[in-house]
Amino acid sequence: PTLSFVSPEFRRRARSRPECLSPRFNRCSPAPRRPRSTPSSRPSTRTRALQSSPPRRTSTRSSRRLSSTLAQPRSSRQSPRARRAPARRVGPHSAPSPLPRSVHPAFAGEKPSLSRRLTTARAASLQEALNTMPDSYLADSGALVVRSGAKTGRSPKDKRVVAEPGSEDNVWWGRVNIKMTEPAFMINRERAIDYLNTRKSVYVIDGYAGWDPAYRVRVRVVCALAYHALFMRNMLVMPEELPEDEREEGDFVPDFTILNAGGFPANRYVEGMTSSCSVDLHLGRMEMVILGTQYAGEMKKGILTLVMYTMPLAKQLPLHSSANEDADGNVTLFFGLSGTGKTTLSADPRRNLIGDDEHVWTDRGVFNVEGGCYAKCVGLSAEKEPEIFGAVRFGSVLENVIMDLDARSVDYDDISVTENTRCAYPLSYIPNAKSPAVGGHPKNVVLLTCDGYGVLPPISKLTPDQVIYHFIAGYTSKMAGTEEGITKPVAAFSACYGEPFLVWHPIKYGTMLAERLKQHGANAWLLNTGWVGGAAKGRRCPLQYTRAIVDAIHAGELANAHCDTEPFFGLKYPTKVKGVPDSLLNPAASWESQADFEATSKELAALFNKNFEQYLGDVPEAVAQQGPGQTKMAYPAAAGSNN
Hints:
This protein is an alpha+beta fold. Strands 10, 11, 12, 13, 14, 20, 21, 22 and 25 form a 9-stranded mixed β-sheet that branches. Strands 4-3-8-9-7-6-5 form a 7-stranded mixed β-sheet, with helices on both faces. It is globular and about 65 Å long.
């Protein structure tokens, strides 16, 4: 049932305890019980009913008031009560003292009996999460441990983009960007606002997407969970982190607003809804609405999707990539989907970290979109990933990990909840992070793939045409847990190594990348962080060897190294890399059966060709010819092979 189809009495009760409508979607954020009031301080139910307007009209009026104030400066949205008794502002450096009970400016005009709180301080947000969320704890490292509920990964099949006049002709419509009507969006939007209006505490985080002031986007997040507020405070660029000369004065007016009502389900009867989850983006209103999922990554990737649309309008190239630079300012970009190694490889103690996931390559260089990192935690240890392990401390958010409640120690190898365990932390928690997070034009561009078939070389040097082919093809394997229903590696093609977040046609991003590579002469590489020896009997390429390969790239040792050509994909791979076994560089040598290797290579080659058929009419002939062809030569049989 929804609020529109129940009795007035049930509607009044639902406004105070909406989780009774759908308990399974609100298990992680039950509304705190209201203290029992005495007759002298609180009128009876019948008296309140006589004094108030009809519930339907009250709900609609409240929603409209919130709707009309979301994009206004705070100072112009204070309620009468707030003007009579101004609330103490809780700034980014305020102590986590008890917050005032006042009407939140973002909810001006609402019933003053609801307590609204503005929380921007990291410590205050963390304390709120501990006080209001069940199953939230502090680990021995000081990090906040939380659960995201039923959804432990993104829900790409529930993503919707509104078909509106200003952007409809630019969007790449299809399975990635599913059309949504304006009325359907407004229903979901009002549903989200109604839910937020019933919450005892609502959190508003104001920050920025982008470190480059020329392309910075003001973002406002309105959410019902304190852990979401802390998460976005870590992921956005906060005003106090900017250089003094870049800090804006006056009221914060958002360019983009996220309404996160993930604790309340979408109505399946709304046009276009296929489940109780819906993640809706309106490029005309510059708003995002989240219903039916409390996975915090939806907010982060929503901002990436926005940037993927707005930056090409400004003739700049958005990238799903990580980036770092050496002491001389030489920048390396790492492209790849979740689980391919972007965060791990960019967190190099000998290089300055620019960012781990979202960047824009402008006419001045690259800049990080985010103010934090969202790292995978499976198998995390101080020995393998010391920088990320050290970032797990007070202020960080550990999502869906398993913790010993007595010792408060986290078992990063326990994936009983999900393989997509995550940690969100600010960039400043990485000792060598660069601030401001901007750099020059890249010297090396590394395309990361996690080959679940185990037939691609660990490292290949790409020609200019090959890099565009593989960038548009975007071959990888979906890692377990990064999306709902993915429990083992599955071969997939994700255009531009970020297909779920693309808004324009992939050719647009590929063309822009080709222009920048030609203009700045960057070296391009295909780095396979996936399996060697096959998916069935092989293993994932050890991290120590992958790091050794990246070190050789940065040192310039591979630029002119002797290479052999693998026969199925035409990829040139070096025969020697310092610190890496020679047999690992030749993918055939890792297989027990040469016949199985060749059969698997042909199978994957056929998938490459079938996938690229959709782009053949849009790319130059030279690029189209970089796809795998017929076998022209055979690998030398590996020692000890069966054939």
